[in-house]
Specification:
The protein contains ten helices and seven strands. The protein is α/β, with parallel strands linked by helices and 183 residues long. It has a domain of 124 residues: Rossmann fold (3-Layer(aba) Sandwich), CATH 3.40.50.300.
Length: 183
């Protein structure tokens, strides 16, 4: 009998559905979910110092079961070293941008708190600075989740199963696949 999957890393462009998939996986597996943005983005959008961020992530992935979503290179080695499955969401750029625009406009309009008191704003949505404008950031980094991340995961975590999901239907069906052991 195969070892049950209890440690999963989820990667994808901003707006690809990482958090939605991670939440579904964590619920179905009965494990904790950690959103790396929530650890990294402190009040006022201040980033946690790298050593503190790495320490916090190391504590999370030291546990027996977890789902981690996020794309931070500075902690990828820690997450991948313990992950049994690395999921890469590789949806079309237009699908991702459409989802992201809807999410960002909604969050900005209702002033939804994301992490540690931080909120998205319409001002940032119209910024030409990709570090402030999540839509521009996603547009510029989208290619990584098709071209780079799957290959890096296979090389950097040869013990883990790398699964690339290319549409919303595949993402929606994935938690059931994990439970069935159909990877």
């Amino acid at each position: 009998m195969a070892t049950p999957v209890t440690r999963i890393a989820v990667h994808g462009a901003s707006g690809s559905g990482k958090t939605t998939l991670a939440a579904a996986l964590a619920t179905r597996l009965g494990v904790a979910r950690t959103e790396l943005d929530g650890l990294n983005h402190q009040p006022g959008w201040t980033q946690l110092p790298t050593d503190e961020f790495r320490s916090a992530v190391a504590e999370v992935v030291d546990g027996p079961g977890w789902v981690v979503d996020g794309n931070y290179r500075q902690v990828r080695d820690l997450v991948w070293a313990r992950a049994q499955v690395i999921v890469v969401l590789d949806l079309s750029r237009w699908r991702v941008i459409g989802q992201l625009l809807k999410r960002t406009v909604t969050r900005s309009a209702v002033r939804a708190e994301l992490w540690n008191g931080n909120r998205e704003s319409f001002r940032n949505l119209f910024s030409t600075d990709a570090d402030k404008n999540v839509v521009l950031w996603s547009w510029r980094t989208h290619h990584c989740f098709h071209d780079e991340i799957p290959d890096e995961a296979r090389a950097g975590a040869p013990h883990a199963r790398v699964v690339v999901l290319r549409d919303r239907a595949a993402s929606a069906a994935f938690p059931d696949r994990v439970l069935r052991g159909d990877l």
